[in-house]
Design goal:
mainly alpha; about 80% helix
């Protein structure tokens, strides 16, 4: 019985110690919670002070942002969209002349409809004007006016899978005609890698390789020929590439 009383006493003491520890931990949790609440209240207080101090400036900035956003959407809807429709209707005939190889009429118009150059001047912010830069560049390229071709093509931008690479490739063609072969080779390769596809990429890699051959850089040409074989084996260029690889390998060993 005495041992039982001693054990009971120990259990009571242990229970009291555990209770004290739990209470202590609970008190610490409450303290941390109170600290967080105080920190949040202080942050809100500082924010309120900041807003009160710079209220006028904040309102002005918000007002300017709203005006800019509304102005942008208003500009697109009430100015740019009608202009785009006008430009498209005008460019219809210029594109017709382009297809017929009436390049001067395509560039300068026919007296009734505008040509690509006038569309660029009058509808400069539209996507039609952007496309007119491309058409103008190709017209000048075909007319042998290579500097003007480069000027127009450099102003054209496109994310299109085909047109973007073809435009940069045309810049390569213009540089080849101007005997700037190194620059042409780089442009062809850049164009080939822009939007890789089975049509433009192997064709432009081939042009780049042949430009490097003209410069006597057969090792660079060989690298590009091998890329065509590995990446575009089913393309027209890929099916005929072995003979070009053999030639470049032979020349690079000399």
């Amino acid at each position: 019985m005495a041992n039982h009383a001693v054990n009971s006493g120990k259990n009571v003491i242990l229970h009291l110690q555990i209770s004290d520890n739990m209470a202590s931990k609970q008190d610490k949790k409450i303290d941390k919670t109170e600290e967080r609440i105080v920190a949040v209240e202080e942050a809100f207080g500082r924010t309120e002070q900041f807003i009160e101090k710079y209220q006028m400036t904040i309102l002005i900035v918000l007002g300017v942002i709203i005006v800019i956003v509304l102005g942008f959407f208003g500009f697109k809807r009430f100015y740019l969209s009608p202009k785009e429709k006008e430009a498209q209707s005008q460019m219809f005939m210029a594109e017709k002349y382009f297809e017929q190889d009436s390049l001067k009429k395509a560039l300068n118009g026919d007296g009734q409809y505008l040509g690509f150059l006038a569309i660029i001047d009058e509808y400069g912010l539209t996507s039609s004007a952007n496309l007119a830069h491309y058409y103008s560049g190709i017209c000048y390229l075909k007319l042998g006016q290579y500097d003007l071709a480069l000027e127009q093509l450099d102003k054209f931008s496109s994310d299109d899978q085909m047109v973007g690479p073809m435009a940069k490739g045309a810049m390569g063609d213009a540089n080849m005609e101007l005997k700037q072969v190194e620059k042409a080779a780089v442009l062809y390769q850049d164009a080939a890698e822009m939007k890789k596809n089975e049509f433009t990429s192997p064709m432009l890699f081939m042009k780049s390789a042949m430009a490097y051959e003209e410069l006597g850089k057969f090792d660079k040409a060989l690298t590009l020929y091998k890329r065509i074989k590995e990446e575009f084996p089913r393309s027209k260029e890929g099916r005929e590439i072995d003979k070009y690889i053999s030639y470049a390998e032979g020349m690079s060993k000399k």
